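Regression test case RT-17, inverse folding.

Input:
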């Protein structure tokens, strides 16, 4: 799939901060799905997007901004057909389920491009530079007996097997309740569970076999039985699950059930209400690979490692620097789209006497996962027709040494796809000015501390060099100021008072008064 270059840049979607590493994971997972789709098309295997992926297609025409997986579903006969041919048809992929791995305790099949990270050239080229594994979850849909009594008996047995399997200890002896449950299961099914074998795994296999006992022609309804057993929902007329239409998803057309409204309301209720909850896996999926990655690398490219000395600024004027009575203000920008966030302080300073205001446009770069530059972008031409900008070749930052520098550079070298020249990193330029002011060039929704996904996202826009090295950070509203302060207190160990002086919100009454005096502009 061909993505525009800026697709992989950090972005705020629906008020949620989506970092570049997540964009890479999205693209890699979609690539896996497209390969699954090709195999299914060759073998006339029916499938459709389901759960959060279907919700994303309906509501966002792509991934839910705070989700990171792809779920698809197949009816039992298509699922079994896929498993028969998948290993041969997709030799470069890992097909993992309870039958391929006795330690895999789940009812899905995962198709993944690996189990650990890879830096092989072909792998990185295919999966958009992401070295981490990416996979797709396949759920199986089974048929419901038309005999209600018969179905109730199966459902009760499935519930007993499920409960027993999840209570099974990893090590050590079973208690009497578990032993009694195993006896009941054996009596009801006629299946002998080997005492010295992996009983938990045997229970999972038995559950799956019981799910598959009814055929399509015997049934009117179908369901993802693990969900039906545990949640008492997600049951549909079988025709609904087979009646699919193409749906837009990140520029691709993916099959989704035509009656998606009924489908989604069964699973989510009022799915039009956006909630940052759900998902049965750890978010984000790439997090589990960071520790093993650090065993071979010094740092994770998109992570900022804080050190106490980063809060210290050496205000040493370079030898060639010249201080005058005139106030020098520099706006250091690299994206034209970000300029709107700097317009207010720019307008203020251009109206002041004895002040020189410069706008320095610098290039920025697309990088690979390891920080190697693979593309250069320079927005100077976009600025020059509307603003009195300075070309990078005509401005010596060390010599000019402005009194205040405004910047929207957040990451320095802590981003998976974007960087600027090292001499303009916040860690460097803070030594060449009396005050470094960082202005975020994005706006996110207020984040409740109980919102785990939202709080995790602060790793990518608060716990970053541009915030730490700045003398002042200007945020958009009071709730966001509180968020920054609370996150930074925990991240750095510094007091609330320390960060209250640095995190500024123009909406606060006190700051509005100060701005009129020119103290916070």
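Golden output:
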């Amino acid at each position: 799939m061909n993505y525009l270059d800026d697709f992989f840049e950090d972005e705020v979607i629906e008020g949620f901060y989506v970092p570049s590493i997540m964009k890479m994971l999205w693209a890699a997972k979609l690539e896996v799905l497209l390969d699954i789709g090709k195999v299914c098309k060759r073998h006339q295997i029916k499938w459709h997007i389901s759960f959060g992926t279907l919700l994303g297609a309906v509501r966002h025409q792509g991934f839910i901004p705070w989700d990171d997986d792809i779920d698809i579903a197949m009816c039992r006969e298509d699922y079994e057909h896929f498993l028969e041919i998948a290993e041969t048809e997709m030799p470069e992929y890992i097909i993992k389920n309870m039958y391929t791995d006795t330690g895999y305790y789940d009812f899905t099949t995962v198709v993944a491009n690996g189990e650990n990270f890879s830096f092989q050239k072909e792998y990185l080229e295919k999966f958009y530079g992401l070295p981490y594994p990416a996979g797709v979850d396949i759920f199986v849909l089974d048929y419901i007996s038309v005999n209600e009594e018969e179905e109730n008996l199966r459902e009760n047995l499935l519930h007993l097997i499920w409960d027993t399997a999840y209570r099974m200890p990893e090590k050590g002896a079973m208690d009497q309740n578990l032993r009694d449950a195993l006896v009941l299961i054996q009596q009801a099914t006629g299946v002998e569970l080997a005492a010295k074998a992996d009983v938990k795994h045997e229970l999972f296999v038995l559950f799956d076999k019981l799910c598959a006992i009814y055929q399509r022609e015997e049934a009117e309804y179908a369901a993802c039985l693990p969900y039906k057993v545990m949640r008492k929902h997600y049951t549909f007329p079988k025709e609904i699950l087979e009646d699919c239409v193409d749906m837009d998803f990140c520029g691709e057309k993916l099959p989704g059930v035509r009656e998606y409204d009924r489908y989604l309301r069964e699973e989510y209720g009022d799915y039009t209400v956006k909630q940052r909850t759900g998902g049965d896996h750890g978010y984000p999926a790439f997090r589990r690979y960071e520790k093993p990655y650090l065993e071979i690398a010094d740092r994770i490219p998109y992570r900022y490692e804080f050190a106490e000395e980063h809060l210290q600024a050496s205000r040493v004027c370079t030898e060639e620097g010249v201080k005058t009575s005139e106030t020098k203000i520099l706006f250091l920008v690299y994206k034209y789209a970000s300029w709107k966030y700097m317009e207010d302080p720019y307008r203020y300073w251009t109206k002041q006497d004895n002040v020189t205001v410069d706008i320095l446009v610098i290039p920025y770069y697309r990088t690979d996962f390891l920080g190697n530059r693979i593309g250069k972008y320079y927005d100077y031409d976009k600025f020059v027709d509307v603003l009195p900008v300075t070309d990078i070749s005509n401005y010596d930052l060390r010599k000019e040494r402005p009194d205040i520098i405004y910047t929207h550079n957040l990451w320095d070298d802590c981003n998976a796809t974007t960087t600027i020249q090292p001499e303009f990193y916040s860690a460097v330029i803070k030594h060449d000015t009396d005050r470094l002011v960082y202005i975020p060039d994005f706006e996110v929704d207020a984040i409740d501390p109980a919102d785990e996904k939202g709080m995790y996202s602060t790793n990518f826009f608060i716990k970053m060099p541009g915030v730490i090295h700045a003398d002042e950070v200007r945020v958009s509203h009071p709730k966001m100021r509180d968020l920054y302060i609370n996150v930074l207190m925990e991240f750095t160990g510094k007091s609330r008072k320390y960060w209250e002086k640095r995190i500024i919100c123009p909406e606060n009454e006190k700051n509005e008064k100060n701005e009129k005096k020119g103290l916070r502009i």
